[in-house]
Amino acid sequence: MARHLITSAIPYINGIKHLGNLVGSQLPADLYARYLRARGNEVMFLCATDEHGTPAELAAAKAGKPVADYCAEMHAVQAEIAQGFRLSFDHFGRSSSPQNHKLTQHLAGRLADAGLIREVSEKQVYSHADKRFLPDRYIEGTCPNCGYDKARGDQCENCTKQLDPTDLINPRSAISGSTDLEVRETKHLYLRQSDMRGKLQEWIDSKTDWPVLTTSIAKKWLNDGDGLQDRGITRDLDWGIPVKKGDEEWPGMEGKVFYVWFDAPIEYIACAGEWAEANGKTDADWERWWRTERGADDVRYTQFMGKDNVPFHTLSFPVTILGSGEDWKLVDYIKSFNYLNYDGGQFSTSQGRGVFMDQALEILPADYWRWWLLSHAPESSDSEFTWENFQGSVNKDLADVLGNFASRVTKFCRSKFSEAVPSGGTPGAREDQLIADLEKGLREYEAHMDAIEVRKSAAALRALWVLGNEYLQDVAPWSTFKEDPDAAAMQIRIALNLIRFYAVISSPFIPDASAQLLTAMHAEDATWPADVASAVQALPEGHVFSVPEVTFRKISDEERAGWQERFAGVRT
Ligand SMILES: [Zn+2]
Questions:
Q1: Which pTM does this prediction carry?
Q2: 260 CA distance to ligand 1 centroid (A)?
Q3: Residue 125 needs a FRET pair 20 to 30 A away by CA distance; which of 109, 153, 410, 448 works?
């Protein structure tokens, strides 16, 4: 039994994510985790909320809540929605956990001891009214280039000119609107990523099996311009992990916290510690997933993320891991995704454009979304959600091909035989052909799943469903029954077994429908099929089943049009 560690990029705490976020990391990670478990592997699947930084503070202020309370509430909301989509995390942690505080401070101390951290004096804008330093993008003013009066301290949205906060005319705090600002000197810690460039280059070059999307982004950041830059790892904020060197104070860093990008990926590790605590396990139980000298050497570690997260995972986080000089597990494979667009434009959280995870579950069960999103995953390029495509895919693939197969076969058996697998008849050449085709198709499906080719896996699975439908069309048991009831019994026996077979192999994509079909078939054994010939005999003659409720319903044109209008923009 192999051991697989899987992490999904951790979603930011300040609100509910849209379907584009879901398909960019959590959902394909869940598909892979479910598949590997079904194949008998030991899996540790971790995700968490990313809770630090200015946006969390501002969202909490807007909600009129202390930031810690706000994060606790939003974590619960995101956890419930994840459960709604059947994301099968072994643990859904929090980057604000005590485990992450301790580990982040520990790793920063190790990096400092290794000479990989330097101090930098910077000038930063301080707001007296807000009693805080303001990050560049929280300072607004008039653009010196075009006169736009809502230019941000890092860039003018109107003319796209890159700016420094001190360039702005009449600068003010974007938080309070106060103009009582002052430029102050402040000290920050920088991670000397540039010192690790050679080591990173060597490591990336060794990953010849990684998707081009992943390695091309990593190489661009390593080599473009002046190459990989050092990066600040501290901020003047209240909310976050206090800057410490292990357990000790860090002179000159009092009142500062680590920058959110630094502590967020460390939460992948800390999350395993949270898992251990939540489940009454020991440190050794989680360390065997993360420390190479304590068992993790034979773990395969796969990360899932959208392309915007690739630089942090290929460069910055590996600098932390490698630079620590400790035996932490490095990622073995990074699966990255392009973007999912929405109906001729982009999903927009600020404009409420597109479907958000909570809304999706209000209108249809999780499996409908899981199937569409995974079968259209933005792998080789960006992909686009349209309601027409969604309706077509649900109605054809799920309702007509899979759902209808289960319904027809079970209802026919109930009306002509009974609610038990009928006896009689002997399989012949057409059945041999079916089994050979399914065998070939199943191996293709497994090969795509092993390679984490999500769209190809969905297509291969659908092709397996189609083979069953074609068989049923060909042998037409409803006609056979009139002349040769025994032959019809044999055909229906095969088809009833195919329902169980489909339920088992479809479970990574559509877990609820799979469970429903297994229950209807009274199938106790849901083991992944070793070979199709035995799988089509798993339910023996006389085995009792029940006709399943409608597995997938069709989406009407009226519904489609209504949703199209509802999600066009401005969330209500
Ligand atoms: Zn401008």
A1: 0.94
A2: 29
A3: 109
